Structures are given as C-alpha cells and as structure tokens.
Structure to design on (838 residues):
C-alpha cells in the first residue's frame, strides 16, 4: 500500500491545480477525497477522478449569492458569468441553480441511492435471487450503467478509484467482518488459516508468475505484452490473493458450515500481509530494474513480511486496548459510544496504512480484540447501533464496489486485450489454487483435530475468489515502469468477473451437489452454554492429567490472564463482576421474550386479517343480497307500472 | 512401528490397549511415561492423591469431579489400562480405526464422549441429572460470581429446556438431545501427541 501515499500526494497536487476552477465551495472538494474535478496533474498517475471532468456538462454555473469570500478566488470566467446574470436578473433572484455548490455530495448521494434501489429491485424476483448471487447482478448493473455513461458522454467518467477503495470502501467491510468475527472459531482454526494465507498465497504467486513468464517465452503470450520476469511476478502477486469482499459476498449466500467458512474467510483476511509485502517488494524491484536486485533485497523482503504482519497485528491490538479502555468510561456519554467504536477501528486501519503495515490485519485484530470488552461495556442501545450501522455501511460499500467494478470494465481506454495472457492466467490460478489447497491440507490433516476431507478441499479451492482488491492494486500500477499494465488490467478484470460471477453462480449448486454440511442457524440455548463451558474445563483438566501442554492448556492460561489483569483494566467495574454465563442466560431470556411477543403479534395480525377477510366477505354478501333485492323490487315496480 | 511394539512389551496390556482404544503405539508409550511420572511411589497403581498433585487441577472447577471419574466409587487404585481407557474418550472420533475385536461402541465416539460428560454430572449414578446435581456443577463453575438465586434461575431454565418427560431431571437421552447441534467431536477431543 505504499503507492497509496504517493497517490494521495498526487491527489493533493491535482486539487491544488484545480483551485481556480473550483467555484463556490473549495472546502467541500478537499484533497484526499479523490473527488477533485480537475485534470490530474501528473501524466503518469492514474486518473484520479470520481466526478466528471468538464464542469460545463453539468449545467449552469452556480451563482452563489450569499457565499463566503471564496467568491474572490473564483476565476475570471466565473465573475464574468456572475456579472452577466446580475445584469440580466437585476436584483434579488427567487430561485437559483446551485449545482456546483452541492455537486460533490449530491453525486455521492445519488450513487448511493442508485446502489440501494438496485438492491431493492433485485429482491423483487424471488426465484432470481436464489439462483444468482447479488454480487453478480450488481456487476451486471455496473456494466449497464457504465455503458450508458459511455454512450452519453463518449468517454468514461467514473471508475473504481484505488484511493476511494482503500481508504473508504474496504475498511468498512473489513471493519464489520473483523468486529463480528467469531473469535473462538478463528483461533481454533488459526493454524489452518495461517498456513493457507501465507504458504498458499506465496505458492500461488510464484507459480503463476513463473508460469506466465514461461508462457511468454514459449510464445503463448503475445509479443505486445512487454513484460519480463519481474513484471509477471508482480502480476502474480496481486492476482493470487483471495479477496475478502468477494468471499463474503458469495459465501454469505451459500451458508457452508462454520469451520469451512472461517478458514476461507480468515485466509482472505490474513493473506493481506503477504500481498502487501510481495506487491511492494516487486514494485521496487521493477522500478530498480531486474538487474540491480541483490540477494540482500530478498532477505529484506522476508524481514519486511515479518514486520508488516506482526506490526499490523500489534497496531490493531494496541487500538483494541485503547478502545476497550475508553469504553470503560463512557457511562455519561452513552450517546456517542458507537462513535468511539467506529473511530478507533478506523484509526487502527489508517495508522497501519500510515506505517505501511498490513492495514487489514490491524483492523481485524482490533475488532477481534476489542469486541469482548466493548460489548460488555457499552449500553444495549449502543450495541444495537454499532451492529446495524456497521452492517448497513458494509452492505452499501459492497454494493458500490461491485457496481463500480462493472462500470470500470466498460472503459476500453484503460485496458488492452491479449487472449494468451488472459486464458493462461485463468487456467493457472485455478490449477495452482487446487494444487496448493490439496498439498497444504494433506500436511495440515496430520495436525488437525478434525481433518478436512475431500469435499472441504473442493469448496476451499473453488471458493478462492479474486475480487476488487486485485483490481485496485492493478490500477495502481505505474504505467511507466510496468509497460504491460493495460494488459494486466484487462486480465484482472476478466479474472475478477470470472470468479465473482461464474464461480459465484455455480458454487451454490456445487455445494448442494456435494452435500457439504451447511451451517445451522440455531438459537443458543442455556444448556449449550452450560455444557460447552463445562467441556472446556474438562478438556483442560484432561490435558493437565495427561501431561500435555496443548491448545486447551494455553487457552485456559490466557483466560486466567484475562480474568486477572486484562478484564480488570478494560471492563467497567460493574461489569467485571458479572459472570458470562449469567449474561448469556439473560440474553437468552430477553431474546425469548421478544420472540414470544413477536409470535403473539403475528398471531394477532393473522387473526385480525382473517377477521377482516371474513368481514369483507360478509359485507360483500350483504351488498349482493341488497342489490338483488333492489333489482327484484325495481322489476316489480316496473312491471306494475307497465301494467298500470 | 516395529521398534515401538517391542518397547510395548513391558507395558501391561500393551497389545490389548492398542487394539481396544484408538491410540497409536507411540501415544501409548508416551502415556505410560506419564503414568510412571505420576506414580510417585512406583506401585504400578495411581491413587487419588497422585492425581491431585497435577498442577492447575485444583484451580479447575471440575477438577475434583474429573479425578472422581478416574476413581469410581469403590475403586481406590487405578492401573495403567484403566488410565488409558478413560483418556481414550478424548481421542478425535475418526482416529478410531475399526479393528477386529473392537468393542461395539468405541469410547471416543460421540455417544461415548457424551456418556463420560454425563457421568461427571450424575454423581450418584442414577442415570439422571437431578436439579441438585446441576446446581452443584453450576455452583462450582460460577462460584462467587453469581447469587444463589441466579443459580436457581439458570438451573430451572436448563431443566425446562431439556426435560422432555417432565420428571424434573435430565436423562441421558434428553442430555444428548439438548446438545445435538453442538459439534461434540470438536468440543470434547484433545490432540494427543504422536
């Protein structure tokens, strides 16, 4: 994520260059938001635009009457037009067109609205939504919208900006996932997760990179793709990481069992460290030139990996402690409690980015670490607020990502097609993922408590989806140093579309066909809570007796440490003394009470409806009878009249 | 495997244990070493006091009950065979390779594990967990953290949830049913080093 810092600087430069253009409200278009409407200052930087370039396309200039002194910075063109208007109108204007004042937030809001309405529309067709995953449809919608914009404006105005993606969209999703991560399940499977994330990603990256280079040498990849070994290794690094956004989007609809899900999802989060390091290392190698790379640099790469991963985790844990500690004292300021959660989790992300550490790891561990203490400290209302705000934001960020992926694909000026490269990449990533999973699982099963069987391995291989992270990374590449950038962009788009759409579509039938054990949505019962706790104690005791210092032994030690030191520090005094089991019992009671009320209400509603329907029926029949009587009477009188 | 089985010769019932439980030869040897370590006075049997010396067991709320499981009422000593057979409950289920002459229901099957846990609760061995017995377990697990009233509430609720035949106690079947959604294999197994 080092190029990110460079990108931000370029953004600032771009915004500065745009100064005289900005009309009434430069503060709104602050640098670092990626929204500056100006032409990018440096030719080699990727176009950092979210808003359309030429203002003129969007209507009349805003003539802000009661605006601040910012008026004076407006260029001469502005003043002239302003003057003109004033000539024409003369005096007070009742209604004005303030487009440039509201432009930025308005467009953002419209995009959010489009994304949300799209979601509503999709769910109208029940049959459709059970077959086609949402992510698929969003990408298709993006393609359509992109096409529309392209046709209307003859050029692409919007695309998925790496800065926007890495600073706003990705943290929202990862933050939500990290905060609500089932910690116990995560640590139970930590060995598998780490193996797949580190070894698996490295294996994928190197194999893909080397094989693509071989393909180039063999002529399968065209000459036009000017890339050598370093470029291919770089490309291999960014295309081989399993993507958390895509995994979440697809697995959410499939509901595989918890263990399988946590392994794939955990892998997608932890492999960020590997991807970050490989990406940075290869970018620097590419810039320096392959000949100048020394062996010392390789060692630096390994050291860098350790620093990035461990450093990122530590940053996250530090923020978790801070967050827990702060929420201990928020009793008098309940109303802003949720804000602390969002701020500190986000700051964990940004701070890791600041130091070029793994931001995703930081945010994930901040969430995992803080969750227990924060949930205990804050009020019930704050808990609800945090939960639903995070989920809403994450959902909308996901929607936007997929729509913009679709839109970005339509812009032909940014990519170049090479069939050899695309097909080779697709084949390689599928093959190497499968090989990697099988190999690692064979090794892991010798150590795991419950081994992963063949079906699990199939789902894991197939569920290794690539997504927007790869796309954002490829767009960030420097076209000057990586000459084949456009070809890489096209390939990445195809790969991402293939995994999200094709694999996303087919994974549900695959899971059904293979009879993968699904997750049972169950309400926790008090018996489960009691006995699971008892089992933990039993296992710890058995490990002690058998003289094994195993997983449970250490987990128990951690829980002792937590009870005696950490919880004292981070939990509110009144909360500290409560027991978890009692809390669980109360939660179950509350949930039961609510569900009973809901059931009663539903029944009442049904009964009401039935009553209403019966009333309706009754009324209708009454009316019919009345009208019949009336007709009969009418006929009688008529016939009487005639007779008479 | 060859050299290991010759080492097994000095282990009492070694071959039999290899057949009956799911342990590998290396695991049994290791367990024997542990058994000898615990058997401080080298009698070839363990007594309750020997187990009580295991560190951290006294801090464990169910520690005393576990020791009790090794020494059912009437038995004062524990030989190696019984030691291993009890520990066999905690092998992961799939490692139970079916051997000729294996018992009907292996100790480390889900039912076997549940039965072991059930017996920890059911101290008087009457086949049911009464309200009192449940309260005792809760008390030892929660101890000072909750009031007696709260304990009663939790126990009441637990029995209400699980008790199908309304006899105010939880039988083994009801116990098993209440845990049918829990992955027992995961929750009641430990990794024995090979």
């Amino acid at each position: 994520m080092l190029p990110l810092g460079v990108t931000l600087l370029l953004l600032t430069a771009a915004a500065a260059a745009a100064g005289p253009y900005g009309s009434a409200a430069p503060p709104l278009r602050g640098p670092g938001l990626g929204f500056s409407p100006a032409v990018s200052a440096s030719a080699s930087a990727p176009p950092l635009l979210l808003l359309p370039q030429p203002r003129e396309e969007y209507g009349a200039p805003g003539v802000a009457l009661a605006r601040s002194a910012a008026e004076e910075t407006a260029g001469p063109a502005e003043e002239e037009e302003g003057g003109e208007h004033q000539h024409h109108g003369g005096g007070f204007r009742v209604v004005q067109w303030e487009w440039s004042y509201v432009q930025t937030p308005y467009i953002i809001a419209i995009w959010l609205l489009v994304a949300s309405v799209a979601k509503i529309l999709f769910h109208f067709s029940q049959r459709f939504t059970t077959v086609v995953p949402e992510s698929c449809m969003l990408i298709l919608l993006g393609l359509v919208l992109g096409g529309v914009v392209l046709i209307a404006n003859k050029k692409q105005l919007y695309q998925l900006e790496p800065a926007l993606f890495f600073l706003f969209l990705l943290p929202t999703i990862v933050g939500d996932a990290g905060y609500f991560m089932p910690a116990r399940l995560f640590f139970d499977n930590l060995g598998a997760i780490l193996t797949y994330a580190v070894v698996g990603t490295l294996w994928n990256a190197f194999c893909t990179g080397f094989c693509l280079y071989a393909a180039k040498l063999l002529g399968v990849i065209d000459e036009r793709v000017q890339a050598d070994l370093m470029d291919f290794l770089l490309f291999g690094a960014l295309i081989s990481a399993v993507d958390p956004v895509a995994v979440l989007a697809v697995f959410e609809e499939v509901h595989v069992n918890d263990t399988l899900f946590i392994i794939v999802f955990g892998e997608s989060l932890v492999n960020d460290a590997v991807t970050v390091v490989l990406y940075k290392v290869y970018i620097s190698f590419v810039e320096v030139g392959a000949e100048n790379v020394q062996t010392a640099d390789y060692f630096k790469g390994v050291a860098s990996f350790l620093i990035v991963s461990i450093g990122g985790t530590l940053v996250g844990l530090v923020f978790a402690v801070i967050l827990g500690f702060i929420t201990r004292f928020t009793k008098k300021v309940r109303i802003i409690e949720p804000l602390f959660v969002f701020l500190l989790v986000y700051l964990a992300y940004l701070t890791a980015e600041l130091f070029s550490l793994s931001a995703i790891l930081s945010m994930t561990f901040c969430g995992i670490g803080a969750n227990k203490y924060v949930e205990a400290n804050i009020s019930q209302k704050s808990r609800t607020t945090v939960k639903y705000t995070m989920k809403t934001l994450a959902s909308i960020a996901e929607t936007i990502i997929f729509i913009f992926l679709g839109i970005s694909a339509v812009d032909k000026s940014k990519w170049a097609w090479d069939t050899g490269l695309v097909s080779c990449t697709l084949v390689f990533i599928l093959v190497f993922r499968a090989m990697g999973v099988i190999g690692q699982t064979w090794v892991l099963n010798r150590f795991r408590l419950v081994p992963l069987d063949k079906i699990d391995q199939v789902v894991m291989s197939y569920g290794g989806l690539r997504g927007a992270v790869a796309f954002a990374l490829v767009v960030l590449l420097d076209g000057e140093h990586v000459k084949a950038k456009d070809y890489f962009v096209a390939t990445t788009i195809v790969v991402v579309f293939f995994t999200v759409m094709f694999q996303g579509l087919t994974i549900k039938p695959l899971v059904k066909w293979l009879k993968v054990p699904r997750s049972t949505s169950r309400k926790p019962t008090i018996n489960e809570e009691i006995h699971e706790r008892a089992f933990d104690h039993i296992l710890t005791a058995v490990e002690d007796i058998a003289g094994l210092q195993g997983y449970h032994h250490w987990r128990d030690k951690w829980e002792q440490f937590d009870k005696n030191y950490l919880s004292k520090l981070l939990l509110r005094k009144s909360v500290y003394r409560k027991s978890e089991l009692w809390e669980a019992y109360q939660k179950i009671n509350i949930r039961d009470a609510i569900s009973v009320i809901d059931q009663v209400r539903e029944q009442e509603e049904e009964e009401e409806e039935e009553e209403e329907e019966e009333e309706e029926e009754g009324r209708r029949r009454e009316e019919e009878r009345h009208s019949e009587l009336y007709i009969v009477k009418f006929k009688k009188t008529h016939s009487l009249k005639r007779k008479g | 495997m060859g050299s290991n089985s010759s080492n097994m010769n000095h282990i009492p019932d070694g071959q039999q244990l290899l057949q009956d439980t799911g342990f590998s030869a290396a695991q049994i040897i290791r367990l024997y070493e542990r058994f000898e370590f615990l058997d401080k006075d080298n009698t070839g049997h363990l007594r309750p006091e020997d187990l009580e010396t295991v560190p951290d067991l006294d801090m464990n709320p169910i520690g005393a009950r576990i020791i009790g499981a090794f020494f059912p009422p009437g038995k004062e000593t524990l030989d190696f065979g019984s030691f291993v057979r009890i520990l066999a409950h905690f092998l992961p289920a799939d490692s139970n390779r079916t051997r000729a002459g294996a018992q009907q229901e292996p100790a480390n099957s889900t039912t076997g594990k549940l039965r072991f846990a059930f017996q920890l609760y059911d101290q008087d061995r009457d086949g049911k967990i009464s309200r009192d017995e449940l309260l005792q377990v809760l008390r030892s697990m929660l101890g000072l953290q909750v009031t007696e009233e709260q304990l009663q509430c939790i126990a009441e609720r637990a029995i209400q949830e699980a008790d199908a035949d309304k006899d105010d106690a939880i039988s083994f079947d009801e116990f098993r049913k209440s845990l049918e959604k829990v992955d027992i294999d995961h929750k009641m197994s430990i990794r024995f080093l090979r």
Remarks:
- The domain at 109-193 of chain B is CATH 1.10.238.10 (Recoverin; domain 1).
- Chain B touches chain A through 49 residues (CB under 8 Å).
